Amino acid sequence: MTIGIIAAMAEELEILLKDLVLDEKRKKANMAFHKGKLYGKDVVAVVCGIGKVNSAICTQILASEYNVDKVINVGVAGGIGKEIYPGDIVVAENLVQHDMDTTAFGDKMGQIPRLSTFDFKCDEEMINLAKKACEEISEINSFTGRIVSGDQFVANIEKIKWLEKEFGAISCEMEGASIAQVCYLNSIPFVVIRSISDNANNGAHMDYEKFTPIAVKNSTRILNKMLNLM
Ligand code: SAH
After folding, report:
1. Which of 17, 68, 139, 158 is the most buried (most CB within 10 A)?
2. Average pLDDT, the chain
3. Pairing of strands 70-79, 169-173
């Protein structure tokens, strides 16, 4: 079994790549695919770049060229709601692309036209493993729910309120739901695990700079634990 591990940015994969016992490194679509062993598991770890296009290309390469059996997306994200703070973990139950808009045809916001699903559901077994990993690291708070993705760094209170009301989202980021769509189309079980870097509000870019290092540490710890449980 090979697990594809995707992060959007180099800093999100930095700790993990230090622990990876590298077999082979190959560049494709300007992304470096690191094949090797991580905490005893066969993995291909890759930094895909920011946004839905980069993450979709990356996931398809993992599917077509590396035949990965599972995909895990880790990284940082904006928190939605009063109770969620930087450093907390969110495990996605399902994901939606909040910027997909064919409402002019009567579709729901987020619905990808002509696709028979509204949201992309994470693999139940992988969700449970991620949740178990969170339980075992009890000093890190964790939440499970819907994560929404779009090609936008959300830094606006009105937008967060809308994401919460329209989608019931607990977190927003820029890659998870497109990774999820590619996994859905290729029938690959996946899960998205993110750690909160900011609250997607008006000061989000400053919180993001401040809290990303701790958020990365936390998501890497959870992933480490999860791989050990697998
Ligand atoms: N210039 C910045 C851009 C970061 S974009 C940089 O290069 O560091 C934000 C990244 O973190 C994306 O990969 C996204 O998935 C995640 N993210 C964190 N907080 C977010 C928020 N409030 N809204 C959207 N994405 C967020």
Report:
1. 68
2. 97
3. antiparallel
Please give the residue range of the domain that contains residue 130.
2-229
- pLDDT for residue 160 is more than 90: yes
Is the model's pLDDT at 82 over the cut of 90? no
DSSP-derived letter for residue 87 is T
User: Containing H/E element for 42?
Assistant: strand 41-47
What pTM was computed for the model? 0.97
Measure the CA–CA gap between 42 and 58, rounded to whole angstroms. 18
Stated as kind and residue range, the H or E segment containing 136 is: helix 124-136
175 lines ligand 1 (CB under 6 A): yes
Mean local confidence (pLDDT), 197-207:
94
32 lines ligand 1 (CB under 6 A): no
Per-residue pLDDT band for 180 (boundaries 50, 70, 90) equals: very high
Of 24, 144, 46, nearest in space to 92 by CA: 144
- Tokens representing 117? 């699903």
CATH classification of the domain holding 198: 3.40.50.1580
- Give the atom of ligand 1 at the shortest distance from the alpha carbon of 176: 15
198 is a catalytic site residue: yes
Structure token pair of residue 207: 């919180």
**Is 175 in the active site?**
no
β partners of residue 30: none
Q: Which residues pair with 129 in a beta bridge?
A: none
Number of domains in the chain: 1
